[in-house]
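I have been asked to look over a protein record a colleague put together. The record follows directly below this note.
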Amino acid sequence: MKFFTDEWYHNTLISQMCFSLRKSNRAESFSDKFFEKLYKSESGWYAKHLKRAARFNRVVFDKDAAQAEFDKNYQDNLEFVKTLPKEIIEKIADIRVFALGTVSYDIYDELTRFCGRLNRECEAVQSKYDDSLEDVAEVIGWTPINMLNMLAEAEITSVKYENNALTIESTERVIVLNGADPCESLVGARVIAFEVTRADEDGRFCLGLLCEDKNGKLFDESLYFKGITVEEK
């Protein structure tokens, strides 16, 4: 059974959406004027934040690059919010304003209930996975499983295969899968989530990785193995 799927990740992101939303009566109706004012305000705040970070890191602040980055983030947000259920999207007066993080009070209440339901579903998946780990840990131990937690949000920097062992290096960990098959598609990927499950009756296990490539596209990788060691870099 695959626990942490693309759908699970998408629902996890949506379930957290309500924590960053702002409420405004002006979002109750479509208004180019309100959208343009909000866009200017949000882009200005974003540039100010990046300028402060540049000063802290002692690098040159690029105003044009900051605006381009904000524009791209907005377009990504616009596409993302369109994945909400149609019955919610149809009630939103201006999807552009929603993509900037502002909604009406009524929509906020509806989204809060919807996000709460998704959050419970995502937590149920996590709970089922945690229960399944008991059986796996009896064989391979809790130490390597717990050390794998540092994989989350880490970038895979190299993958090597030698003597039937697959060595995966991330920015935080070195993972060696013994009795594994070759794999070369992970270099440069960012790990979103991982899971360790029993694979078959031959005593093998599976390290399932949900990753994001350099273009922001999600993909799954299943790595089968008989033994595992995890070390800090």
